[in-house]
């Protein structure tokens, strides 16, 4: 059983690494950028290209699974059996601007709960992985959340730019955390922010609305690294609907 699990993880990481290569070698001059609903909500030719590759190759790897991707109009239920929940480029605006903070994110859910997570930032060649109950890893080495308190910690937040009605509350929280922590950060990729919590690089992350493909993989990486992930209100994350997300090292709150 463990060998089958390892084989599946190797297959997923291989596909994700190849998709990261597409990001690195992208010719932005030939990429069409379309606007989706909401402020600064974009999709590029490469988002669609990578999602098609992920869907085709992940389902070939595990044919009994369903596939849920950001760039699909209709999403399958993830409540029963296996479900890949994928974001082809998390941090699309960063990708468009060549900001080097974008990731390929693939979560595998089993009966509605996280089972595997893979997040790859191709720019520094950082591959974060986790399997339920087996710990979290960065490029094959174990990672763990930090033990810093909030006053000695870094807070990362997402501005939920597509949801302008959340802006005032988002920045009010950021100012409150700024006063109570070492400093605040904003990267533009929720998946990478969550992985920063898992790797002990920061202590608290929040965003007031995210979709399952933003956190399906990285939330498992955080919990397997010893951290805690809930909604901002303290509830369990749903994997079939959008919600707020808060991740901590278990000390901050």
The dominant shape is: globular
β-strand percent reads 25-35%
Q: Averaging pLDDT over every residue, what do you get?
A: 91
Helix content: 25-40%
* Helix-and-strand structural type: alpha+beta
Could you please say which CATH topology of the largest domain applies here?
Fructose-1,6-Bisphosphatase, Chain A, domain 1
Treating each run of at least 4 consecutive H or I residues as one helix, how many helices? 6
Please name the CATH architecture of the largest domain: 2-Layer Sandwich
Our Rg estimate from Cα atoms comes to: 17 Å
CATH class value of the largest domain: Alpha Beta
> How can the largest sheet be summarized?
7 strands, mixed
Give me the CATH superfamily of the largest domain: Fructose-1,6-Bisphosphatase, subunit A, domain 1
Tell me the domain tally.
2
Describe the protein in words.
32% of the residues lie in helices and 28% in strands. By secondary structure, it is an alpha+beta fold. It folds into two domains: 2-142, Fructose-1,6-Bisphosphatase, subunit A, domain 1 (Fructose-1,6-Bisphosphatase, Chain A, domain 1); 150-248, D-Maltodextrin-Binding Protein, domain 2 (3-Layer(aba) Sandwich), CATH 3.40.190. It has a seven-stranded mixed sheet, with helices on both faces. A five-stranded mixed sheet has the order 11-10-12-14-13, sandwiched between helices. Helix 1 (2-24) packs antiparallel against helix 2 and helix 5 (190-198) packs parallel to helix 6 (212-224). The longest helix has 23 residues, at 2-24. Residues 35-41 have low confidence and may be disordered.
């Amino acid at each position: 059983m463990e060998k089958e699990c390892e084989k599946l993880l190797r297959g997923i990481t291989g596909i994700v690494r190849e998709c990261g290569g597409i990001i690195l070698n992208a010719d932005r001059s030939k990429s069409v950028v379309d606007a989706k609903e909401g402020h600064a909500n974009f999709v590029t030719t490469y988002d669609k290209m990578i999602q098609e590759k992920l869907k085709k190759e992940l389902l070939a790897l595990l044919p009994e699974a369903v596939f849920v991707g950001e760039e699909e109009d209709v999403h399958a239920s993830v409540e029963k059996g296996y479900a890949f929940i994928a974001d082809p480029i998390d941090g699309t605006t960063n990708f468009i601007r060549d900001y080097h903070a974008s990731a390929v994110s693939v979560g595998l859910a089993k009966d509605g709960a996280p089972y595997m997570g893979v997040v790859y930032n191709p720019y520094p060649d950082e591959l974060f992985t986790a399997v339920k109950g087996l710990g979290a890893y960065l490029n094959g080495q174990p990672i763990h959340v930090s033990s810093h308190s909030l006053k000695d910690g870094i807070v990362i937040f997402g501005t939920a730019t597509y949801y302008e009605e959340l802006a005032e509350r988002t920045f009010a929280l950021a100012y409150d955390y700024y006063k109570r922590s070492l400093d605040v950060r904003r990267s533009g990729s929720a998946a990478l922010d969550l992985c920063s919590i898992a790797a002990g690089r920061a202590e608290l992350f929040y965003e007031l609305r995210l979709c399952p493909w933003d956190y399906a993989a990285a939330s498992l990486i955080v919990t397997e690294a010893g951290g805690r992930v809930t909604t901002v209100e303290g509830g369990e994350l749903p994997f079939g609907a959008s919600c707020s997300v808060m991740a901590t090292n278990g000390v901050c709150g």
